[in-house]
Amino acid sequence: MLKCVRPQGCPHVGVVAAASRKVFRLGALAAALVLGAGAAAAQDVAPPRLLDRVDAEAPKNSFGRPIEGWVKVRYSVLANGTTADVRVVDVMPPRMSTKAVVSAVEKWKFAPATVGGEPVDWFNNESLVVFDQEDVPLEPSPFFTRAYAQVINLVNQQEYEKAKKQTETMLEMQTTRLNEIGVLQAQMAMLNVATSNLHDAYDAILRATDPEVVTLQGSDLAGALRYRFGIELELGRFQSALATYDRLAALEQLADDDVVKTQAEALRQALRPDAAVAVKGRVAREPWSYAPTRRTFGFTEVNGTIRGLELECDRRKQALEFSQDVEWSIPESWGSCVITVDARRDTTFTLVEFPTAAVASE
Is 217 helix (H, G, I), strand (E, B) or coil? Predict the structure, then answer.
């Protein structure tokens, strides 16, 4: 059902000929900053465990009919087992109200995280609340099918901007099923690639292929995963690209000369422990977030203005004053982290993940 906007069946999107070109060592930045104290002595650490989940009321459209979709939230779990700082980071379809979900998550109860047996606050939590309703038909509605045919007609005429606007309207007004969301998001990814907007394309393909939400299946999902793999290579999200490849390989048997398979194998070899990794970022309407795969990072090639950074880790949450001449090193004791970049709209940059040993040796 997906309509590609490039020839040869759209097997991949602008994948580099040699993945190793994207993996390289950079010279040290002007200064190094180790955040917080050094790693604490080894302790038993246990993350929070959900005890009581309050479900939000299923959403309905303006006619009172059930609709499918999801709300992704981030929040903290305090040492007393309650949630705090609940906020929405994504919602599909975009018009769906999120108030009921936020209210429900605020009532969730946890066995708190512990360190050495003592309860502690745990900041880096994310959950996806999915509404997959049994009384919603699996097949797209005739109304959706007719509107989608108009998008395909615009794609065939290479009217990509018009096709994007039509797709956005459908997401806002005409989607009631998870499958419809998946089809439109995959199409939006392809349209953004055709209009040279890889960052928005990545956001769209993530929604179409999120492993926690079944929106596409079979050949549609396999095709979308191929697209995702190509975009992740272009943006330098190499660990995610390898995870995407593993999902694709589990869906279908890939020939030895399959372009995705050969690039994945080259990527695994290129990701040496002593090599730096460059990840392309852009701030659009909302701050840009990224879960680093290494503990040391810095920024280069900033085009625009970065206002500040925030680290939200399992055991620590900290705002950072941005400087292009600083390299930050996150203590292991902080646990897994997400970096959020606040910047003026359309600011682009490259986040560089360094081998941790590079800082220790200086």
Answer: coil
